């Protein structure tokens, strides 16, 4: 299993300090699972993620918030659906033997066909990021098992297209995680604990660091077509604190949930709905300004 979160069953209202409120919609567990994690949401509010079975195995799922899911596996030791485009195409990772350098990246087409991401005929090994919801473009990273360096890339139609190059001192560690319809890429670079977020727009890379004196590192994840990204900053004690980031106004908005001590924001769609995992459950967040939240 590549993460650890818990499941919560009751509907709650989000409570934030210094941020806009909204509604948390519980994610129904996959039937028979011991834990369910939501990692992606598209503009039709179709979610995708992973679940753990009674034997500890991890599998991918996708579907609507009514709990009527489809499940699938790539390999035998663990599969996660990390992104879902508006047409239902899914991108994800499959852990083949427990090593970070053997995380197979894949794309699942709407007919169920699995395409493993390759570069010059060789399997890309690393972590895949998110789609531009309106196209079949995505971002990810490719790990070099010999040097330990990690290189970011853009993929199209299940294939490696080009490397993501930043005009920053990445220390050989570049991890794109978000791509929107305008071609803006978000992610992070550097090594623990001093990672830095970045925004790559029209070939220009900008470093993004959370404005808190206790912040040791910053990471940016998915970004929507409105230029709002999800992310988190960490302190030197290992604490992680989620936020949203508006790149146009350079504004950070902290995100907190009453009763939760661990919170991760995984994805954000063009209506501002987010995939949220906490130690008290997996949710879809619907912003207060949204007139109609999914049931």
Helix count, DSSP H or I runs of 4 or more residues: 0
Low-confidence stretches: 2-18
Report the portion of residues in β strands: over 45%
Please name the fourth-level CATH homologous superfamily. Answer: TolB, C-terminal domain
Spell the H/E element sequence.
EEEEEEEEEEEEEEEEEEEEEEEEEEE
N-to-C terminal Cα separation, in Å? 29 Å
Structural class designation = mainly beta
> What's the shape?
globular
Query: Can you name the CATH architecture?
Result: 6 Propeller
CATH class descriptor: Mainly Beta
Round the Cα radius of gyration to an integer and report it. 18 Å
And the CATH topology?
Answer: Neuraminidase
Order of strands across the main sheet: 1-2-27-26-25
Description:
The protein is mostly beta strands. The protein has one domain (about 10-285): TolB, C-terminal domain (Neuraminidase, 6 Propeller), CATH 2.120.10. Helices cover about 0% and strands about 50% of the residues. It has strands at about 10-15, 20-25, 35-40, 45-50, 60-65, 70, 80-85, 90-95, 105-110, 115, 120, 120-125, 130, 135-145, 150-155, 160-165, 175-180, 185-190, 195-200, 205-210, 215-225, 230-235, 240-245, 250-255, 265-270, 275-280, 280-285. The strands form 7 sheets. It has a 5-stranded antiparallel β-sheet with strand order 1-2-27-26-25, with no helix packed on it. Strands 3-4-5-6 form a 4-stranded antiparallel β-sheet, with no helix packed on it. A 4-stranded antiparallel β-sheet has the order 7-8-9-10, with no helix packed on it. The two termini are about 30 Å apart. Mean pLDDT is about 90; it is low at about 1-20.
